[in-house]
Amino acid sequence: MMTLLKSALKFAAVLVAVFAMAGVEAPNAAAEELAKNLFGNKKLPAALPAKSYGFYSKGCFSGGVAIATDGPTWQAMRLSRNRRWGHPTMIALIEKLSRESAEKDGWPGLLLGDISQPRGGPMLTGHASHQIGLDADIWFTPMPSRTLSAGERENISAVSMIKKKGLTVDDSVWTPERARLLRRAASYPEVERILVHPGIKKKLCDTVKGDRSWLRKVRPFWGHDYHFHIRIGCQPGSTGCKEQAATTPGDGCDKSLAWWFTEEPWRPNKNPDAPKARDLMKLSNLPKECRLVLAAPSPESEMAATFKGGGGGGTSIAAVIQSAGDPAATEIAPDEAAIGANAILPADGVRIPLPEWRPQK
User: Fold this and answer.
1) Which among 99, 133, 124 has a CA at the least distance from the CA of 281?
2) Helix crossing, 88-105 with 176-186: angle to 10°?
3) Residue closest to 108 by CA, chosen among 166, 160, 178, 162
4) Which residues pair with 192 in a beta bridge?
């Protein structure tokens, strides 16, 4: 009994120390603020190893990195939302998709919608998911040949692929290149699901020839007519991450798809004023690790947590992670060692938190 008591006291002391390092007091459960406010107001990630906690619609993550606002084959949209953060695996995958779809499929480049907030968690507005750094939205609108202004990124609308007041694809805007982009995204083993409007799924079912196995990953869901949603699985080291159910066998072009073209899925909501989960969720409703994620120190700046890839003025995330195996390339500062986060020092002298995660070869 005495040993258990000592262990409990020691753990409590560690929690107090972590909160003290972050310069905040431990949250008071009796006076808890909504989790969406706590996470939505964080401007930078938690400088801790990259790990996801909880489920896609109920969790948080640490060690997040931001994709650069501009790359050779992508541009990030809606910058004011500060939702271009994700687990390093997700950011690496987006860069790879943008590069390979341009090189091999003729896609001009990606316009990126929301990924996650710096530390994940419920969002102030919009998505129910995107909470653990493993979701990303990509527009069906191709990247223009020029760099968009900040104002354009806020105000330009993506183009819907669906007929007005209809459920099927508008053939005047849909192109085979978009189907190839989806096939490219589905080809990556990290990707477990791609959500699209049911009409887009039907278009693929009706037109894809040859190998159709990749269609299993493409799932119909409400919305997603302007963009598609990529979801990757829980990553190695994220022991607190809750896996999603596996997709059903087959290409999904069956009765489950036919259901979307009946009245049932589109009936008006009988209770439209019911509060959303994000309007009720408190910090205590999230995994316990999210308290530490919320209280953890931040990197020195946004630049310190942003990877620029593919000739965009810095080092790609893949190159940074791979170089981390070289002891000469890393430097651990005392304060970083205290919270278990290594650092890599690039040529420009900006210190970048280095997650424990390593890519699989």
Assistant:
1) 124
2) 140
3) 178
4) none
Domains of the chain: 33-262+273-301 (3.30.1380.10)
pLDDT per residue over 91-143, tens digit each? 999 999 999 999 999 999 999 999 999 999 999 998 899 999 999 999 999 99
Kindly give the interhelix angle for 198-207 and 176-186, rounded to the nearest 10 degrees.
100
The distance of Cα 86 from the centroid of its chain, to the nearest Å, equals 5
**How many Cβ atoms sit within 10 Å of the Cβ of residue 339?**
17
Neighbours of 265 (CB within 10 A): 13
What is the distance between the alpha carbons of residues 79 and 97, in angstroms, rounded to a whole number?
20
The pLDDT tens digits of the residues spanning 76-91 come to 999 999 999 999 999 9
Q: Measuring CA to CA, how many Å separate 23 from each of 28, 164, 201, 294, 298? A: 15, 52, 49, 11, 11
